[in-house]
Amino acid sequence: AVVSTQSGHYGRGVRGDVRVIGNDNSYNLCSICRDREHEVFACNALAIPLRPGCFDSVICIAMLHHIATPSRRVAVLQNLADLLTPGGLGLVTVWAQEQQLDMDLPEPCRPCPTDGTEQGVGRRHFDSQDVFVDWKLKGGLESSESKMYYRYYHVFREGELQELLSEVTSIQLLDITYQKANWCAVFRKL
Prior knowledge:
Layout: E1 2-3, E2 21-24, H1 27-35, E3 39-42, E4 55-61, H2 70-83, E5 84-95, E6 109-111, E7 130-138, E8 146-154, H3 160-166, E9 171-179, E10 182-189
């Protein structure tokens, strides 16, 4: 299972004997996936309408950091675990607060307005864990227009993803690594 398929790139290159089913909260992204012949449906990760215990593996790449509260993050992680068969494996990645400052990405991040600061911060330096990141939505292929949005991110500090996973009692954390400005966790369903 791919929870938060985005544009479908995490379902590519899978062996022919493996069936991949994905979901995303965005109808537009699901449409892109269907155009690429992926099996996908729209739903919220807090309420995945699939039978528990029917997947050997589940991945959730770059989505959990868009969930605003710790209790909702744990609920998403529990839903991922519920999808797995006993012994099944899960992979979750989230943006890290501890990002490399030498990476050259031009768009800035802005702290959430509720934290009392007005200044923007650098793309790879987060003064707050809850930030809005500039995101440009480009027009269609024949349009040069783009519109700026600010997407919410909760950037994870070291140890935070493990803390959340420890609240999901039906899994065993196998590995946690820092890769390319992300915290990555692998777990097994008990």
